[in-house]
Amino acid sequence: MIQASTGVAPNEAKDSAKEASASVIAQQAAMLKALPFSDTADFDDASRGFLGTLENAKITNAQGRVVWSLEPYGFLSEEKAPPTVNPSLWRQSRLNMHHGLFEVLPGVYQVRGLDIANMTLIEGDNGVIVVDTLTSIEGARAALELYFRHRGKRPVAAVIFTHTHVDHYGGARGVLDDEALADGRIPIIAPNLFMEHAVSENIIAGPAMLRRAQYQFGPFLAKGPRGQVDNGLGKSIAAGSVKLLRPTDLIMATGDKRVIDGVEFEFQMAPNSEAPAEMHFFIPRYKLLNLAENCTHNFHNLLPFRGADVRDALVWSKYLGEALQMWGGKADAMCGQHHWPVWGKERIDKMIRQQRDLYKFAHDQTIRLMNHGLTASEIAETIKLPAGLEGAWHGRGYYGHIRHNVKAVYQKYLGWYDANPVNLDPLPPVESGKKYVEYMGGADAILARARADFAKGEFRFVAQALSHLVFAEPDNQSARALLADSFEQLGYAAESATWRNAYLFGAQELRQGMPKAPPMPAMSRETLAALRTRQIWDLLGVRLNGPKAEGKHIVLNWSFTDTGERFVLTLENCALSYVEGAQAAGADASFTLARATLDEVIAKQTSFPEAVASGKVKVTGNATRLAELMDLMDEFPRMFEIVEPKRTAVR
To answer: Quick one: which of 106, 129, 7, 11 has its CA closest to 51?
Structure first.
């Protein structure tokens, strides 16, 4: 009998992972021969300058809950990769186990392995400058305390955010206390448009991105040789408390300089590369180059599985070329905000050149093949890295693989449609799945052929075929089990950590159903305060259920006493739009309030009726029209089906 809540049979929910197949073992052996595993320079670099660490890199919050630990990854102490992990990925996973405080150069230190990202600490004349503050407050506080333990207590002189991803700014309150924030004496420096992008990139499509991120990062997978081993950039995503602090100083242009606690920084802007707002810097005093997340020890993502705007490989390459022009031959050490540093002018310049050419090659060759008429999947099947890049460990696709990065380039230029009319308006998965099953002679015929191809190691097509069967017959346990086995073998063979996580999590969900998770929490006050009011209206617009709004027409005026903003919010033609700086004479209702009060309501710290009753909101007109509008809003689920049909219809 099938459980309605998960779509899996009770006696199959505990299915364990399988062993690697003979064909996967052969692929792993071929990888060992193809790549220069005798080159151990990265292991020397990853351990260089070690000063001390926390046992197992374990960090807890005030309630004693573990928010970060490398203890579950103890299995990576084995040098030899097991058959269930690609040996190249195993190598990267072991390198990412180095943790603690490291001296990069006298006066420059890094905390690595206490988060997926690094904290870089640069000593000034009187204090220390903190570059990137990790994901969580707890992690940042532990990292800074580790630095103090080995270098002595010194004041934080400034905080620098290199770019707009939360693992680089979320822990800022762990290094800046209330007193420091109250008097504003400590600068918080970030690239131009930091706030706009830090709060917007994951807001509008946030629920879908969070669910897809489970496939990218594998947080619900067991840690182990048959489960999650790494994320390419680092081990995992940290838990803990996150707060966003608004920068007090923005770097506006390449060539901008700042003297911070007596130390001069030279900046280079790199927008629309790895992040929509990102920057690099060079410190002449230390001859230190930091290229943020644009030159790390893997081929990065041009389009992460969680979703994002497609990153521009061409400008990414140009920024690295510009960095060479500005600082080539000048740096004694280069450190990024992931992975380990590189030392020596020749090695640094060579790595930058190779990374520059990696992104340029992916861009140019995708466009070349595209202009020959190849589709995205055909380009991915055709393209091969040149020998000079193929053998560079830092160019391997642990986080962003060449086979999916070329698809991102294709999407950036041509979009999702490959120009073949058959793909213009195909049937959705359930409907097409039923027809495929019918055309292929039914479920039994498909399973028989799939088992034969599975035995031959043809896992890619077996997965394609069985996916149609699962969408046609989601309760067919034989189909689910064999599709899960196919995903698993593909995961074992994958060099990319994100591919491995996606395949293995897909297999787990087919066997066990979706993980149980609480409902989406209300957005935090700190995040809301960082949003522009127009962004809040945009967010409200995507929650509007169009079919339920059919025939509705609502006009509401809004005046905010603390910001001086005025808006007209209009529901018409099943779309919610707004006009800024205006009021409608014939509005159904008008609301006057502080913007902070609106934040309290959205954060569910109060309600509109309570705010009206307490005098925080003044209303003229028909206030029930707002309630009518809010009744048309969807609440988004934290979880939804991905490798099987939706169990609940969405309208």
So the answer is: 106
For the chain, which domains are there? 22-413 (3.60.15.30), 426-493 (1.25.40.880), 532-632 (3.30.1050.10)
Give the Cα separation of 137 and 130 in Å (integer).
Answer: 14
- How many whole angstroms separate alpha carbon 570 and alpha carbon 172? 38
How is residue 314 written in tokens?
């061409």
Contacts of 448 (CB under 8 A, 6+ apart): none
Count Cβ atoms within 10 A of the Cβ of residue 81 and give its class: 0-12 exposed, 13-18 middle, 19 or more buried: buried
Q: Which residue type does 516 have?
A: K
pLDDT tens digits for range 395-428:
999 999 999 999 999 999 999 999 999 999 999 9
User: Can you tell me the distance from the alpha carbon of 164 to that of 321, in angstroms, rounded to the nearest whole number?
Assistant: 22
Half-sphere exposure of 513 (CA within 13 A, CB side): 18
Per-residue tokens: 290: 């930091």
For the segment 12-38, what is each residue's pLDDT rounded down to a tens digit? 334 578 999 999 999 999 999 999 999
CB 190 within 8 A of CB 161: yes
> Cα–Cα distance between 298 and 453 in angstroms, integer?
33
Query: Rg of the Cα trace of the chain?
Result: 26
Nearest alpha-carbon partner for 245 in 184, 336, 154 = 184
Provide the residue count of the chain.
651
Q: Annotate 388-453 with DSSP letters as a single string.
A: HHHT-GGGS-SSS-HHHHHHHHHHHHH-S--S-GGGTSPPPHHHHHHHHHHHTT-HHHHHHHHHHH
Q: Could you identify the residue written with the tokens 């066997």? A: 511
Considering only CA atoms, which of 221, 219, 231, 167 is closest in space to residue 198?
Answer: 167
Residue 536 to residue 602: CA distance in whole angstroms: 9
**Measured distance CA(165)–CA(565) in Å, rounded:** 29
The dihedral built from the CA positions of residue 272, 277, 282 and 286, taken in this order, carries a sign that is negative
For residue 553, what are its two tokens? 């027409």
Tokens 């808006």 appear where? 567
Q: How confident is the model at residue 162 (pLDDT cuts 50, 70, 90)?
A: very high
Task: Decide if 288 contacts 105 (C-beta within 8 A).
Answer: yes
Q: What percent of the chain has pLDDT over 70?
A: 98
End-to-end CA distance of the chain: 28
Give the strand order in the sheet containing 288-290: 257-260, 263-269, 279-283, 288-290, 333-335, 342-343
- CA–CA gap between residue 245 and residue 114 (Å, rounded): 21
For residue 479, the SS3 value is helix
User: Phi, psi (5° rounding) for residue 346?
Assistant: -65, -45
| Distance (Å) of CA 228 to CA 86, 370, 512, 648 | 12, 35, 16, 30
* Dist. CA 233–CA 192, nearest whole Å: 25
Residue type, 68: W
Backbone angles phi, psi at 577, to 5 degrees: -125, 170
DSSP 223-247: BSTTSB---SSSS----S-------
* Coil, strand or helix at 384: coil
Query: Is pLDDT of 544 > 90?
Result: yes
The residue type found at 411 is Q
Strands 288-290 and 333-335 come out as parallel
On whether the CB atoms of residues 155 and 183 are closer than 8 A, the answer is no
